Amino acid sequence: MNGQDETERTRQRGNRTLEVVFALLLVAGIALPYAQAIPWLAENGLDLHRLIDEIFATRISSFFGWDVIVAVVVLLTAVSVDTHLPKGQKALVGLGALLGASVGLPLYLLLRQRNLRRDPP
Q: What single-letter DSSP state applies at residue 100?
């Protein structure tokens, strides 16, 4: 066994570990925000006017609202030009991004990392 084989195995383990981390962040990105959103939706329904009013009710909540909006636009832009994701995965990330940046971003990074591991550059 030569050093190059060992280096490759170490890199592969690191890539798989990164995939697990991104998968766990995806779970957290779904569970944590939706633990807040689902009760709000149960109480208010799809009242978009109220939702926007509450998101932008204060300067600090506006900060977070705009932060998420800009993050989703950046994510969608990055995904649209990414050459490591096939069209179907790009569409999946786009749908995930509609659920929020905390869903779309770790999903994108997970899929990209998997694709890079399977087909190294």
A: -
